[in-house]
Amino acid sequence: MEFTLDQVASLLNGKVEGDGSKVVNRLDKIQEGKPGGISFLSNEKYENFIYETEASGVIVSENFQARKKIKATLIRVKDAYAGFTQILEAYAQFTKNSKSGIEEPSFIDPSSNIGTNFYRGAFSYIGKNNKIGDNVKIYPNVTIGDNVTIGDNCILHPGVKIANDVVIGSFCEFHSGAVIGSDGFGFAPLEDGTYKAIPQIGNVIIEDHVSIGANSTVDRATMGSTIIRRGAKIDNQVQIAHNVIIGENTVVAAQAGISGSTEIGKNCVIAGKAGIVGHLKIADKTTIGANTGISKSIVEPGQTLLGYMGFDLKLFLKSYAVFKNLPILQDRLRELEKKQ
Amino acid sequence: MEFTLDQVASLLNGKVEGDGSKVVNRLDKIQEGKPGGISFLSNEKYENFIYETEASGVIVSENFQARKKIKATLIRVKDAYAGFTQILEAYAQFTKNSKSGIEEPSFIDPSSNIGTNFYRGAFSYIGKNNKIGDNVKIYPNVTIGDNVTIGDNCILHPGVKIANDVVIGSFCEFHSGAVIGSDGFGFAPLEDGTYKAIPQIGNVIIEDHVSIGANSTVDRATMGSTIIRRGAKIDNQVQIAHNVIIGENTVVAAQAGISGSTEIGKNCVIAGKAGIVGHLKIADKTTIGANTGISKSIVEPGQTLLGYMGFDLKLFLKSYAVFKNLPILQDRLRELEKKQ
Amino acid sequence: MEFTLDQVASLLNGKVEGDGSKVVNRLDKIQEGKPGGISFLSNEKYENFIYETEASGVIVSENFQARKKIKATLIRVKDAYAGFTQILEAYAQFTKNSKSGIEEPSFIDPSSNIGTNFYRGAFSYIGKNNKIGDNVKIYPNVTIGDNVTIGDNCILHPGVKIANDVVIGSFCEFHSGAVIGSDGFGFAPLEDGTYKAIPQIGNVIIEDHVSIGANSTVDRATMGSTIIRRGAKIDNQVQIAHNVIIGENTVVAAQAGISGSTEIGKNCVIAGKAGIVGHLKIADKTTIGANTGISKSIVEPGQTLLGYMGFDLKLFLKSYAVFKNLPILQDRLRELEKKQ
């Protein structure tokens, strides 16, 4: 994908200052600009870099006034950041939608339907009785089981596995290696110390605009459904157990884990490596800090928790400050005891 | 899979009350019952739901006495829960065993043997000199290396990877994306600060009735074997390092990690996100709490441990209660010091 | 692979004592030696095992003097450990390089180049405009996107996924299920509580001699590059977020996670389950203990940190020792207060 700076300016309704015939094929940070790249300057803190950058072009705002000579061609637009974002999205859109058609060999059972304008990569597998919408991209080595529903405009990156009976909305994205609908971890202890598997016959429902990160796992419900609601964003290597419900627009960062039957509210933020035990309810707008453990339901919305057994962020930080001083505290206590 | 309620009653030796010709194709929780589903009522706490459920049928115990009118057809059996479990298992059995035969293209080296009644999904790969038993299901995009042994009645879900030399017993299940037999993490530091890989030439042995969760990893031994003993159940995203031994009927929950050469006893329970350092021995029937770190061997069987550097559960909870009060404790100490 | 002990001795310039015609096909630990295996005795602590081992052959040092009768054939070499390592490497080399050629069906776009002496396993996928060096092994069910560069002598184990634009050096190894170049986790919050994906258009650069463990994930940069420098060794299930830089010869153990834009120095050791928040700089030669959380940059090189919010190892251990005594400390404080 190569464009002249004149073409970029035309896309953005911008004005070129300098050589508009230079060709760019890359977006660069201004401090890392190299020939063939286009950057932007929006934050004043980065102004010094514009005098040194080797980027071929830089997008600047209308009212930017240079204090020194600039080697790069400038493209002046109303708002430099918005302009750059526009290119960023055009670029990403172009890249993501570049695949289409069928690569062979790929496998689709004749009982399954797929809409128009799809991509089915080589070695992708689509089992029986699936209903797949329009504009869906199924990358190589993806496996989709039986009786799966997938809405429009979804992207399944290489190696994603969708198990039987999963229901997926529209505009969802599954990153490489994600597993949706694996069996919940349910084993009944028997008297002789062995375990018997409890059949996991529920499914997973994923609503619209959900993103699931690379190598994350979402288990099917024992009965009923594990549900990820509209707009939730799940990072890499997250574990979501059977019968969990993740609320609308809730964000779960990498390596977090949510145990069985827990229900997370709307617009929560769960930071990396956090762990939540099973059968809890977490109120809307709760923020759970990194590596925080939650073992009780959170009833009041809008709290921020931190710690091994998470409690209020500020109180935790105070306790941890004293924890670091504990040996000194102990010495002071001994001194007092001696004086008695 | 559709049945009439009369057919279900016949399977369970039950008695129908109401319309037995209604068709069901789904198992529902009673509080989420919808037409076309069959539920059960066993726990009295849920009795109110039976008067409101929209499930087509509900399995109840012989001695259940309705206090109000019920819309659903009832199936009376000796024990409602046992009856429901029977259907659950029949349902799961039916689903899991529905695949058979060979889907093309799939790959098997002519030097490998596979027993009778198997399923080999499209894009599954079986390398050289493998011995695979009867009733084995190998789902799409599974890769099996060379010199692998797999017993009877095993299930390898989509995208599972079994490396060379792995030995697997019977009735084992591997969930999607699990990796068995990847190289152990062994690097010898050299004088110039670089590292040299130590060849990992051991294997992995997995005994009968073992379950390994989605995207879990079990490394091969440096020499000898990493061993997972009979009946152990491993959840999703668990890491088991080289030369580890997991004892019989030990359960390891999601995102736990066990470092190299550690030996876990029988009938232990290791909760989610727990971490155990290398070269330890953990006694039988040890329970290790969620996100607990273990850095010393556990000699006495039957203990329960919790905490960042895990110790006795009750003592940990007491210490953590004081931890939450540390700022107040510190203030009290200051007060005392002033009075001296 | 079978050899006589005479052949092994010849390889090592060693001297046979006993039956050199015995055939071996396995390397065993001396305490687990079985017929058909060859072991070594280097550490005196293990001497007793040589009198009991059932291994067919044992490599010993020139000056080893047996105190009892030994059943196994001995091979005397200058340094037993070095001799054994030599066999270990020969064995591993032999195993790893045994695959070559093309297995069908596999997929390579005609616009991609691959060097000489390669292995392309069945169901492996190579997209457009890739440049792949010599002696590269691409195992079954690997997916490589578009515009990827891979140097010489790399190994991609089954099910590895390399996304578009990734640049990989020489002598790199990617274990099963690793995902390189998945989208960074970047979402801009909108006023209505929903999130909008920020296009992730950067790439991943992996320098020479890097190893990435099974099911680990390395996200592409938002812009610019996520970089893993020469000689870094990454274990299983590690998460490396967008725009992270891992320094030369840094080792990251299993289930550790490094958040976006953090820069780790050279020759660091990051233990299992450690978590580092985003936008930090970690000095060279820093050691971060297991399950340690790091929320501030580390400026001084060579420190060792431990703890939930990691600080100096020794100070942490002292604080934790007092933490275990907190209930007693609290009682002592109460006693003092009563006496006032």
Automatic annotation (TrEMBL), chains A, B, C:
Gene designation per UniProt: lpxD
Lineage per the UniProt record: Bacteria, Pseudomonadati, Bacteroidota, Cytophagia, Cytophagales
Enzyme Commission designation: 2.3.1.191
Pathway: Bacterial outer membrane biogenesis; LPS lipid A biosynthesis
Ribosomal protein among keywords: no
Organism: Belliella alkalica
Catalyzed chemical reaction(s): a UDP-3-O-[(3R)-3-hydroxyacyl]-alpha-D-glucosamine + a (3R)-hydroxyacyl-[ACP] = a UDP-2-N,3-O-bis[(3R)-3-hydroxyacyl]-alpha-D-glucosamine + holo-[ACP] + H(+)
Protein name per its UniProtKB record: UDP-3-O-acylglucosamine N-acyltransferase
Active site, per annotation: H242
Domain of life: Bacteria
HAMAP family for this protein: LpxD
InterPro entries referenced in this protein's UniProt entry, alphabetically: Hexapep, Hexapep_transf_CS, LpxD, Trimer_LpxA-like_sf, UDP_GlcNAc_AcTrfase_non-rep
GO molecular function, one term: UDP-3-O-[(3R)-3-hydroxyacyl]-glucosamine N-acyltransferase activity
Keywords: Acyltransferase, Lipid A biosynthesis, Lipid biosynthesis, Lipid metabolism, Repeat, Transferase
Role according to the record: Catalyzes the N-acylation of UDP-3-O-acylglucosamine using 3-hydroxyacyl-ACP as the acyl donor. Is involved in the biosynthesis of lipid A, a phosphorylated glycolipid that anchors the lipopolysaccharide to the outer membrane of the cell.
Assembly description: Homotrimer.
Family stated for the protein in its record: Belongs to the transferase hexapeptide repeat family. LpxD subfamily.
PANTHER family: UDP-3-O-ACYLGLUCOSAMINE N-ACYLTRANSFERASE, UDP-3-O-ACYLGLUCOSAMINE N-ACYLTRANSFERASE 1, MITOCHONDRIAL-RELATED
Enzyme class: transferase
Domain UDP-3-O-[3-hydroxymyristoyl] glucosamine N-acyltransferase non-repeat region: start-end pairs: 23-89
Any Pfam family: LpxD
